[in-house]
Design goal:
The protein is mainly α. It is 74% helix and 0% strand. The protein is built from 11 helices and no strands. Helix 8 packs antiparallel against helix 9.
């Protein structure tokens, strides 16, 4: 199927984004050093650090196996109608006008960015005491946002492979530039696996998305990147401002990554539709 001019321009922008390094204060820190992690480990102690890692690990596992259906299809259909996308069910999104879908998703991502900043500012008042609760709440919000973006471009986020892709997108939002490039390669491999297998197995309790060792390593890397964002919370004077900025940045980068990745897949799928 022939691509529209808008889709051709979008594809060029996506390819440019794929080669770009991350921007932002925390991203620069993540790109050049891991010392803040060591600093915080010494500041709060190994016991507290382990609690943070356990909390993040439990949250990730719950998102994979418990939150199978956290998105309301009827709500998405109503949102689509509000943006001029007149569909009766979500399967019709696969052949919708990309520009209309993009406008709808951009509004959605901006909403989450503002909400995360407000949440971060409130949590920042508590400094390190509320840091763990804030991070786990942010991960839940991030996961939910990406699920909705996936649905909007015609992909079911409850499929096993899609869950793995969502984990990589979260990693892009939290990590530095090298993490982004590595995650994009892994997403490319996951898409190939999905296209070859043709399976649409939904994630249920007991069904492994990642192997236990791979999931453990993923949680360790995610925790390390998140810990960099906890460093300023040891300084109550700046905690509120930095926490709000940090949360906003994570959602901004995750949302933009999901936006680019799912649009590229949408365009690629359109080419194959006869």
């Amino acid at each position: 199927m022939e691509l529209s001019e808008y889709e051709k321009i979008s594809l060029k922008k996506i390819r440019k984004w794929e080669k770009q390094k991350h921007k932002g204060l925390h991203k620069k820190v993540l790109d050049i050093t891991s010392r803040p992690v060591n600093y915080l480990a010494g500041k709060i102690g190994p016991e507290k650090l382990k609690k943070i890692e356990n909390a993040i690990g439990k949250t990730v596992e719950n998102l994979l196996y418990v939150s199978t259906f956290t998105v309301d299809p009827e709500d998405l259909i109503k949102r689509a109608h509000a943006h001029g996308v007149m569909i009766k069910n979500l399967s019709e999104l696969k052949t919708c006008n990309l520009e209309l879908l993009d406008e709808c998703n951009r509004v959605h991502i901006n909403f989450h960015e503002k909400a995360s900043a407000i949440q971060g500012a409130a949590a920042g008042l508590g400094g390190m005491l509320t840091a763990t609760a804030d991070i786990t709440a942010l991960l839940v919000q991030d996961f939910h946002m990406i699920q909705e973006i996936a649905y909007c471009y015609g992909y079911d986020p409850n499929e096993v492979i899609e869950k793995e892709i969502i984990l990589r997108i979260i990693e892009i939002g939290v990590g530095g530039s090298e993490v982004k490039f590595k995650a994009l390669k892994e997403i490319g491999s996951l898409k190939t696996i999905k296209s070859k297998s043709g399976k649409k197995t939904t994630t249920q309790k007991g069904v492994s998305v990642l192997g236990s060792k791979a999931l453990e390593e993923y949680i360790e890397h995610l925790t390390a990147a998140l810990i960099v964002r906890l460093v300023p919370r040891a300084l109550p004077v700046v905690s509120m401002v930095v926490s709000a900025h940090s949360n906003h940045e994570i959602i901004e980068h995750s949302g933009n990554a999901a936006f680019m990745i799912y649009r590229k897949r949408f365009i690629g799928r359109k080419k194959k539709i006869v």
